[in-house]
Amino acid sequence: MRATNGHLIDLTPLKESPAFARMWIGSTLTGIGGQLTIVTVMLHVFALTHNTFAVSMIAVAGLVPMILAGLYGGMLADAFDRRSVALVAASVTFASTALLAALTWTGLETIWWLYVLSMINSAANSVGMATRTAIVPRLIPREMLASASALNGVAFGLTVMAGPALAGVLVALTGYGWTYTIDVVLMLSMFLGLWTLPPLKPEGEIVRPGLESLKDGWRFLRRSSNIRMQYILDIVAMTFGQPLALFPALGTVLLGGGAVTTGVLTAAVAVGTFASSLFSGRVVQYRWHGRGIERAVQAYGAAIALFGAVLLVGVFLPRASEQTPNLALILTACFALALSGAADNISSIYRNTMMQAAVPDSMRGRLQGVFIIVVAGGPRVGALYAGALATLTAVWFPPLLGGFLVIGLVAVLARANPRFRAYDAERPAA
Q1: What's the CA gap between 116 and 62, in Å, rounded?
Q2: Considering 121, 273, 368, 419, which has the largest number of Cβ atoms within 10 A of its Cβ?
Q3: Buried b vs exposed e over 115-131: b needs ≥16 C-beta within 10 Å?
Q4: Cα separation, 59 vs 371, whole angstroms
């Protein structure tokens, strides 16, 4: 593996590839704007309906379009010029957000417009994400892919930390129209990053979008045990170790602090993601990515179990409230969640690098489309697990049990797949 300078993040991909740097900057700014709109739509729907169920349905309504668009977008990325596909997807997102801003400024927005435009945004973003990820290996050498994944972790951490917080402040100070408009302006940076790319037609055999293309991708995945295993491990982690659905209740019934605590707990995960990317200099040099994924996912499970243990301790302490939160308990819970965000991000660095290095160029779009389904579906199954089990038992039980389940299941699955544990980044093989 290529040497880096110490523990800090390796910036070489930004220096060596101006095209990657432009796309990275555009994706980061657009991601912050996207978070602005996601949170603002939630606030907007609640202002129109005063119904939390209506707010929760935004995510549900966008799930099916996200999955379908991710699959079809991956096929498009493997059949046509990826620069053009990414530009079309960005144009659709830009147009739908601009329409959302225009409707708001003119007072013509309705709950149905907010739902429909959110679904369009979700679908277009899936296509764009699958395509842009497939583009990266064409812009930088293979030995820089891990560093590029770490840089994307920094972008994601900034997006999740800054976007929701800015949305709340902007809506309070300027209103919905200005907040949507700011997203429209930020989105222009994505066009700069994509427009300046060269044509990027897929290399190798091209299969036109359709059922045969989908079957071709499925056949490849069936014989690619390393890629398949990383999907399975991610599903295990997200199913049993995803406590986000518990956060609103924790601020009310256990930790205190209400909605503020919910926001702080959510931000803690992003802080861990950002910090682990910032100090990823040694992480990206580790060549045994299969073992790296295994250990990182188990560390994620341990962090979630620690979070559950912290909540269990809170049961035996004096009851907190929205006005009198238990600050020591909240800070300890945030520490555990930050560790989970860091571990998940390290796993993500190795998973993304494996996907981009081991999958042939002609298959990258479709495999990224499948990965979007894993990323989108896993946390929702995890929300069901956590919510249902917490209803039957207590809020501390799902993360405590789930963390240990993640550790144990990953150990069994990884040991049953020695080829995955022996994966060498210097000799990538799907």
Answers
A1: 9
A2: 273
A3: bebbbbbbbbbbbbbbb
A4: 18
**∠ at Cα 100 (99, 103), nearest 5°?**
80
Q: Taking the alpha carbons of 240, 244, 249, 255 in that order, is the dihedral positive or negative?
A: positive
- Amino acid (1-letter code) at residue 394: A
Taking alpha carbons only, the member of 153, 71, 84, 83 closest to residue 368 is: 71
What does the block give as tokens for 180?
A: 């949507």
Q: Spelled out in words, what is the top-level CATH class assigned to the domain 1-202?
A: mainly alpha
Give ranges for CATH 1.20.1250.20 in the chain.
1-202, 209-430
User: Taking each helix axis from N to C terminus, what angle separates 289-315 and 225-240, rounded to the nearest 10 degrees?
Assistant: 10
How far is the C-alpha of 407 from the C-alpha of 205, rounded, in Å?
40
Q: What is the mean pLDDT of each run of 10 residues along the chain (430 residues)?
A: 68 92 92 87 84 70 80 87 93 95 92 90 88 90 91 88 80 88 92 88 80 83 91 93 82 79 83 91 91 96 96 87 85 95 94 90 85 76 82 90 96 94 89
Distances (CA, A) of 5 to 13, 17, 220, 272, 282: 14, 18, 37, 21, 9
Residue 75 exposed, middle or buried by CB count within 10 Å (0-12, 13-18, 19+):
buried
**CATH ID of 209-430, from 3.40.720.10, 3.30.450.40, 1.25.40.10, 1.20.1250.20:** 1.20.1250.20
Cα dihedral 223→226→229→234 (10° resolution)? -130
pLDDT at 169: 80
Q: Going by C-beta distance under 8 Å and a sequence separation of 6 or more, which residues neighbour residue 297?
A: 233, 234, 236, 237, 343, 347, 406, 410
